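ok so heres the complex, two chains, lmk if somethin looks off
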Amino acid sequence: MKNYFKSKGFITVLASVISIVVGLLIGFILLIVFNPAYAVGGLGSIVSKGFSSSDKFAKVLYQAAPLIMTGLSVGFAFKTGLFNIGATGQYTVGAFMALVFGIQFQMPWWVCLIAAMIGGAIWGFIPGICKALFNVNEVITSIMFNWLGLFMVNLLLNNMPVMLADHWGASNKDRTAALASANPSAIIPKLGLNELFHSNYMNISIFIAIIIAVVIYIILEKRTFGYELKACGFNKDASIYAGINAKRNIVLSMVISGALAGIGGGIYYLSGTAQYTIVKSLLTMGFNGIPVALLGASSPIGIIFAALFISYIQVGGEALQPEYAKEIIDIIIAVIIYLSAFSLLVKNILGKFIKTDTSNVNAEDKAPASPEPAPVKATEAGSTEEKGGNE
Amino acid sequence: MSDYVIEMLNITKRFPGIVANDNITLQLKKGEVHALLGENGAGKSTLMSVLFGLYQPEEGCIKKNGEVVKINDPNDANALHIGMVHQHFKLVECFSVLDNIILGVEPNKMGFLQKKEARAKVLELSEKYGLKVDPDALIEDISVGMQQRVEILKMLYRENEILIFDEPTAVLTPQEIDELMEIMRGFKAEGKSILFITHKLNEIMAVADRCTVLRKGKYMGTVNVADTTKEELSKMMVGRNVNFKVDKCDCKPGETVFKAEHVTVPSKLHKKNAVNDVSFEVRAGEIVCLAGIEGNGQTEFVQGITGLTKMSSGRIELLGKDITNATIREKSIMGISHIPEDRHKHGLVLDYSLEQNLVLQQYWEPQFQHNGFIKQQAVREYAEKLIDQFDVRSGQGPITIARSMSGGNQQKAIIAREISKDPKLLIAVQPTRGLDVGAIEYIHKQLVKERDEGKAVLLVSLELDEVMNVSDRILVMYEGEIVGEFDPKTVTVQELGLYMAGAKRQDGHDSKKEEA
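and the predicted structre for the whole thing:
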């Protein structure tokens, strides 16, 4: 038992819990600042709303599914030493592909989902190939591809009248058609779960996301492919020395990362409850993948819980209206999520107090190794420091 | 009031599962060179890290000039004029030499860097102590020897009086070592005190006044170097008599295993070729040593033939098969094992566990995977076998993270991995760099054992002792070309030194150059 408390996994979980609690406390302070009268009720709502009814809980799951996917997208890239900040672009292109196959081509949902995956994969492939062949930093390329993706999708949708809601009898021209009227077969099956939860939000997407997370976990931890990818992430030179094709792995890693985000986009817009609105700002679901991945320590299993948590907080936050303005709620939620992602920092602090059993017999070379100056490694911190709570 | 400039009294430092320093006392006099001797894992670096403020001891105290001081971090150490050259240098790779030297103590006027002053001071110091550096070169582009000079200049720039050298000669050529010894004597004459961590007895005998010996974290005693011998010191350090000579029978070379023809490799630093038209053979059952001063193309040659960099021309053969254009993986499968020069950069994935590192070259073989799934059990068993067989010591066995292992054991792990692959050709680049006599003895034995089993061994070494003791045939490389071939039994160290420095050249190799 004593050993259990000293294990690395326990410290990781404890660190996440502590940072979540700190985040909630600061969120509470903000609630007091903005509207003291409802602060206590507001905190209660954030903490308990998600469980208050089966409909709310269904909504938590409904939003968590795409978050898991974008979280996996970012986390997977992290593990392999890449920072995929382009998840939102891949998510957007994925959503677009799913909708085109659903509305324009009248395909069933699973074809749409595969199309979404391919769309995201292509949007990840280009930054990947640029990195592998020309050593262009993937952060720069994928940021540009976020905007390229967004405006390309908007442009295409504007020129595809069949895609828009007004073609199917609704009045809106600024959004895609509701799948219920355009092509009900493209809606992700609910398998009676909607009856069970008394909620229109409920479908099997959360299970799809969890299954994919488990598959990613298996790839990373059990497969030679994952061994190669992680080796490249930790030490590219050593993996080249070991005969691993590092360039191929960079490309594949970005393709898979993009595909995951693409599926996320597909899942969300094939739910039947969401319509893609033509706007000029990037979709936040993709960016939220970053805190999800950090909070989940890039571990696929951790990411499932992190996405559920963030989705839960968001559903709770929505219930703060009308006592709090929507923008204020966003700030509060952002603060909570932001602080929750500090778990790495908290973990390091905890590590100083709780001595883990991971130190070694030959401590001689540890001294020079630990305070190593690693000025350019900052972006990899999330991936290299963490092994995840599930191991 | 005190004879000693620094005293570390009864220091005890524990890590989970081990006492790294057990009641150790070290007293450094002003103006002396004090050697700290011990095997890998004896606790030398830990003790120095305590002095440098990287670790806090559980027991004991540190005194400077007789007064107790508390050193919480390297800044405190710096304030006490304690400076350290670490075994693994602490330099910012993408900064220039000058930037690295002034890093942390940048001279500035209202936030604007005053590099001119700094440059003048650095050049003056460099002149005064004979520490040749190019202040504008980037760290990533300069040799290890020059990087070390940068580290020394860093200490001098900060006007440190107590200089700690953590295994400084591990990475140097014989000539550079002599120079360093001279520099140390210069420091001593100026009244600076030097703590010299090493496990090379020759150097202690040459330069140190006194020597403190540690073994497995325990204090073995402090002796006057003048009153002792190499044999006594090594016995204190290892606890048994060490054989300095490598026992081996005559070599019986068989068929040609490896053949290099006109190999040319471009340099990454300058426009000239790092390796120029190098041809030779390595036969089964012989150890061929590529000797030379660092930076004469040995590294590039090995990287060229192993595939880490591209050769611009030439061809290489393994057992009669052309492998010039084979990939690294193909070469590995065909039977080339490579113990790389830089064990942290190439040899290990430091964040992987020991077992994951032990299968780094073989994880894809059916032995370790089935349909792409790694057979964790097989990996574990294989790792345990190697750990046992090669005596790789670590905190948690197979699941120890490689980063947390000592340098000697990291190297043992690499050697275990590469030898266990049962190669046809074993390429070992400075395999004993930074290791203690016990480990060196062991690795030399392994190399000779591989040779006796009929493997071809290509050894690249900067250590003349190693070159003379281990090899069956010596090729000297100078400025990217082979300038001489020798039999270690008939050649002297002095003679080799002349070739290594480029002062002499064998006729046969001269004419070859003219042809090309």
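quick notes: The CA atoms of residues 66 and 383 of chain A lie 21 Å apart. thats all i got rn
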